[in-house]
Write a structure and sequence with these properties.
Layout: H1 2-27, E1 31-36, H2 40-54, E2 57-62, H3 67-74, E3 82-86, H4 88-96, E4 100-101, H5 106-111, E5 124-136, E6 159-160, H6 167-180, H7 182-195, H8 204-212, E7 218-222, H9 224-230, H10 237-243, E8 245-248, E9 259-267, H11 273-283, H12 286-295, E10 299-300, H13 309-313, H14 324-340
Parallel strand pairs: 1-2, 1-3, 6-7
Antiparallel strand pairs: 3-9, 4-9, 5-7, 5-8, 5-9, 5-10
Helix pairs in contact: 2-12, 6-7, 6-14, 7-14, 8-10
The chain binds fe (iii) ion.
Length: 349
């Protein structure tokens, strides 16, 4: 009898953890489904590290557009757990589409400063990028500049920028509304439009190409494109574009340089919500932050994480401390002003 109960206990001890794991697995398989606007080469190394650390498999769908609409259309049956994207504009588009859910995580709150996550906990910034001036090494002798300076007539015909309606520029313009008000920003947009070398078109890299080719002296672009161009072995001409310019961080002497984020939301009907939260927590961890920022030449959102050597080589800068919640709230106004002044029609209209 004594022997039998001892055997039963041993058996139970042996079986129980396995049983536990089996029950847990039945509830939530050790996987997480990610819909990503971020490219495979950027995030696959991070997912590999996450799987090694947690045993949770990451299934990814990559696309350049339509993922928010897809999650919306899939509704309650959507397999999506996490959406990864860039810019607070896209993150708020996701929350406004009703596809996100609030996530209350002490780990995320501790890692991500409140300026870089939604005040209702529906989106989380994971990396930062600064929107800077790319200035001709040859023709621009300035060491400092402000966004306000771009309206100065001395830059007539010398500025290249992509569409004013692109999310990156809408957020920058929102930051100017926050700093100076709507009327001031409207005048600023008119003056910058008059200073453009050409009609806004192309992406940030093509503006740097404009400086390289002599079409303009300064271009507005995000910091990581410097890294992307310098490391572009497939299109080596981009290295020449990058080498023709220097980065100037605007407004370092006052409120600081405008920054935006890349980030994530957890889908409203996430079938593996716990794993989704674990993935976000990993991306916000020291290891995740270092890898995430380095692979795309971005800045970590978490304080105290070292910048990659290349990013460091661009110099220290002071980020505008404004909350991206405030930027998000001013985006609509900014976009309306862009249309109102006919910014995208270019300098001659
Ligand atoms: Fe970009």
């Amino acid at each position: 009898m004594r022997l039998r109960s001892a055997c039963a206990l041993a058996l139970a001890l042996f079986l129980f953890p396995a049983l536990q794991a089996k029950i847990a697995a039945a509830e939530e398989p050790a996987e997480v489904n990610v819909y990503s606007y971020r490219q495979p080469y950027l995030i696959n190394p991070l997912f590999k590290a996450f799987t090694e650390e947690t045993g949770i498999k990451v299934n990814v769908i990559f696309a350049e557009k339509g993922l928010i609409e897809r999650i919306q259309a899939e509704g309650r049956n959507s397999p999506a757990d996490v959406l990864l994207t860039v810019d607070v504009g896209n993150l708020t588009q996701a929350t406004e589409a009703g596809i996100a859910q609030p996530i209350h995580s002490e780990t995320l709150d501790a890692a991500i400063p409140s300026a870089y996550r939604a005040s209702d906990d529906e989106w989380f910034g994971l990396t930062r990028r600064a929107r800077v001036v790319y200035a001709s090494k040859e023709r621009v002798k300035l060491g400092t500049i402000t966004y306000e300076d771009l309206a100065d007539p001395k830059w007539r015909g010398k500025i290249c920028i992509r569409s004013g309606q692109h999310v990156y520029n809408v957020a920058l313009i929102a930051s100017l509304i926050a700093a100076h008000g709507e009327e001031w920003t409207e005048q600023w947009l008119k003056a910058v439009k008059a200073n453009l070398a050409r009609k806004p078109a192309g992406d940030d890299r093509l503006q740097v190409k404009g400086v390289y080719s002599g079409e303009c002296d300064i271009a507005i672009g995000n910091t990581y494109y410097m890294g992307a161009m310098l490391k572009n072995d497939k299109e080596p001409e981009q290295k020449e574009w990058a080498n023709s310019v220097k980065i100037i961080f605007p407004n370092t002497l006052d409120r600081g340089t405008h920054v935006n984020i890349s980030g994530a939301v957890v889908a409203k009907y996430a079938p593996h919500k716990d794993n989704a939260v674990k993935l976000l927590e990993f991306l916000a961890s020291d290891k995740g932050q270092e890898m995430y920022a380095e692979v795309n030449n971005e800045y970590p959102v978490k304080d105290g994480i070292p910048w990659s050597p290349l990013v460091k080589s661009w110099g220290e800068f002071k980020p505008d401390p404004i909350s991206l919640n405030e930027i998000a709230a001013l985006r609509k106004k900014a976009s309306e002003l862009v249309d109102k002044v006919g910014f995208d029609e270019g300098p001659s209209s």
